[in-house]
Amino acid sequence: MANNAREFEYTQDDFDFLRKISNQHSGILVPDDKFDMFYSRLSKRVRLLGFTRFKQYCDYLQHHPEQEFTEFINAVTTNLTSFFREKHHFDYLAETVLPELLKKNQAQRQIKVWSAGCSTGEEPYSLAMTLLENVPSGWDVKILATDLDTNVLATAAEGIYALERVTSIGEQRLKRWFQKGVGAQSRKARARADLRRIIHFKQLNLMQDWPMQGVFDVIFCRNVLIYFDRDTKARLVNRYAGLLRQGGHLFIGHSESLHQIDVPFMLVGHTIYRKTDV
């Protein structure tokens, strides 16, 4: 049933079509209560394309995916993040994981971290600060930061944030790792080159092939698993295990768990897992 109070005609059939193709592409489950959210997030696209009904947008998306599909996925992907979100993860990384890696990886003097679902970049920049503050110079420190949404990746790669978003990291860190803007940019700050140079941002659909070579010491995949069904979670986490060194760590979101999922990890902290022998 369409709601006549809306700017655009929008029906349950439209919503079902849109969430079906979103799920087919990304694996993300879209529950019934996201009906209004889909309308809100896609109305801009419908308006921009000059349509009056969501049915027209559905038809356009179906017949012109090369022009519209990326815009569609960008619009319906959730991107909520902040610097040092779930601070206990970064504390554990600094106090427990990194000292262990400095001993274990002494021969190659390299540490590799993957931020899967990096959104607008606050997580990988928080990881970069933690690593550079705790790893001696002369080590090769690399962070791969991936996301499905190309728009948020562009923001992340630029590394420019409103001052109110970065002041939460504390004055000392702000002075060390960010450069405040001047003039028209005075209410913004940019991550310094030391942070940006160790992060490689790349678009990636977690449900498709992964081009990465080699293995990681740490993977952050936080507030991503919550969108998938049990079987998809198990497949994804087992794929992570395949790219983690033995004893490597997986960090997931505060409302997520690997409980009763058949994966080679043991819980070592609050939503912190360590890869076990298989």
Topology:
Layout: H1 12-26, H2 35-48, H3 54-63, H4 65-76, H5 87-104, E1 110-116, H6 122-134, E2 140-147, H7 150-158, E3 160-162, H8 163-166, H9 171-177, E4 178-180, E5 188-191, H10 193-196, E6 199-203, E7 216-221, H11 230-243, E8 244-252, E9 265-269, E10 272-275
Parallel strand pairs: 1-2, 1-7, 2-6, 7-8
Antiparallel strand pairs: 3-5, 4-5, 8-10, 9-10
Helix pairs in contact: 2-4, 3-4, 5-6
Structure in words:
This is Chemotaxis protein methyltransferase. Its EC number is 2.1.1.80. It catalyses: L-glutamyl-[protein] + S-adenosyl-L-methionine = [protein]-L-glutamate 5-O-methyl ester + S-adenosyl-L-homocysteine. InterPro entries: Bact_Chemotaxis_MeTrfase, Chemotaxis_MeTrfase_CheR, CheR_C, CheR_MeTrfase, CheR_N, CheR_N_sf, SAM-dependent_MTases_sf. A 7-stranded mixed sheet has the order 6-2-1-7-8-10-9. A 3-stranded antiparallel sheet has the order 3-5-4. The mean pLDDT is 91. The protein starts with 11 loop residues before the first helix and ends with a strand. By secondary structure, it is an alpha/beta fold. The protein has helices at residues 12-26, 35-48, 54-63, 65-76, 87-104, 122-134, 150-158, 163-166, 171-177, 193-196, 230-243; strands spanning 110-116, 140-147, 160-162, 178-180, 188-191, 199-203, 216-221, 244-252, 265-269, 272-275. Helix 11 (230-243) links the parallel strand 7 (216-221) and strand 8 (244-252).
